[in-house]
Design brief:
Order of helices and strands: HEHEEHEEHEHHHEHEHEHEHEH
Distance between the termini: 43 Å
Helix content: 40-55%
Largest sheet: 7 strands, mixed
Strand content: 15-25%
Strand order of the largest sheet: 2-1-11-10-9-8-7
Number of strands: 11
Radius of gyration: 20 Å
Number of helices: 12
Length: 364
């Protein structure tokens, strides 16, 4: 059994309040706040692609255990670990080339294994794909390592058009949506089917040994959840978004119990009305992007999301969370608290912050 600062009673509390939040019955925001013991933990890679493929999965998982076991969880936070193989690794499962580097900085990207006309491009589930087998082995090892006490997240499968771009490259796909839209619609439909198939296969390992599901972001559901996305949408019009992205999002939201969408930067704001129209899309994560005002400085946008009937996840500072609660109330928000510069909260400060946030919400 893992030595965690988190108990079965904590899981029962988190599950109770999170279920109420999903049902819009929780009158306060969810708040994910953690602190870490002042102990040194072994350095780990951000991308698991940088560990040798022949390194036993159990040894890889063990590298991440000290950091998780040194973490204290406050508010609605829970212990989580997920396999980071890069955004859109489903492209690797389908046969694209996985490019991974660790020096001077870590990154992963995907390129076509071979060039072919778009009409010749087909996708199939390959249970023997080396990257897929690696993900499944790590999933099994993590579930076993923490005996279900740590939420083991689905890997970052990616968005439909982002996956297709890994086989065409982004520039060519921009031409394809104009020159061969029927072929792209064919690939979009097939990608959605395979996305669900890969999610299902990984969930069969994760759930029920773990409580519910999580993914590459800090969000949890007693059923199936995922943070859906389409970075490609930054470059297309709302009409193209409706034609090429919406069918996939609707299909995934119909499959998931609690689907969320990763609204990444102001270039995706023109698609917000389409997103709000998806009945089974439960919420939207707003990420302003580098160089943009902080999340709490987008109050009209946040109000629009909440007035549209969606929940909202934000990565905010303590002061940012207080600003949002003061102006909009806390109901329906999920705040992942992070710190700026050298700022850090000790356990007493963490508890005090949660109390002041509750008082701000009550005053609202």
């Amino acid at each position: 059994m893992a030595d965690l600062h988190f108990t079965q009673n904590d899981w029962e509390r988190v599950e109770r309040d999170t279920v109420a939040w999903w049902e819009s019955e929780l009158k306060r925001p969810l708040v994910y706040l953690t602190t870490t013991d002042r102990t040194e933990t072994p350095p780990t890679c951000s991308f698991i692609t940088n560990y040798p493929m022949d390194m036993p999965a159990e040894e890889v998982v063990d590298l991440y255990a000290p950091a998780i076991e040194a973490t204290h969880y406050y508010g609605d936070a829970f212990p989580q670990w997920w396999m980071n193989f890069g955004p859109g690794v489903m492209a690797g499962f389908l046969g694209s080339t996985v490019n991974s580097v660790s020096d001077p900085s870590e990154t992963v990207w995907f390129t076509p294994a071979e060039e072919m006309p778009v009409e010749a491009l087909t996708f199939d589930f390959d249970p023997k794909n080396a990257w897929w087998q690696r993900v499944q082995a790590l999933t099994r090892a993590a579930v076993t390592r923490w005996d279900g006490m740590v939420a083991v997240g689905h890997t970052d499968l990616g968005g439909n058009m982002d996956i297709i771009a890994s086989f065409r490259d982004t520039q060519q796909l921009l031409f394809d949506v104009i020159d061969q839209p029927d072929q792209i619609e064919r690939l979009v439909a097939r990608t959605a089917e395979l996305w669900i198939q890969h999610y299902d296969a990984q969930e069969a390992v994760i759930h029920p040994p773990c409580r519910g599901t999580t993914c590459w972001t800090l969000i949890w559901s007693p059923g199936r959840t995922y943070m859906l996305q389409c970075d490609f949408s930054y470059m297309v019009s709302p009409a193209m978004f409706e034609r090429f992205v919406m069918p996939d999002l609707v299909a995934c939201c119909e499959y998931l119990d609690h689907g969320f969408y990763h609204l990444d930067g102001k270039g995706e704001i023109p698609h917000l009305d389409h997103l709000l129209s998806i009945e089974r899309l439960r919420g939207i994560q707003w990420i302003p992007g580098n160089g943009q005002p902080a999340p709490h400085e987008w109050l009209p946008l946040l109000k629009r999301i909440r007035d549209g009937g969606k929940l909202c996840q934000l990565f905010v500072t303590p002061e940012g969370a207080r600003t949002i609660v003061k102006n909009l109330g806390g109901r329906g928000f999920l705040f992942v608290i992070h710190h700026t510069g050298d700022e850090s909260l000790d356990p007493a400060q963490a508890q005090a912050f949660l109390k002041t946030l509750d008082e701000e919400d009550i005053s609202k």
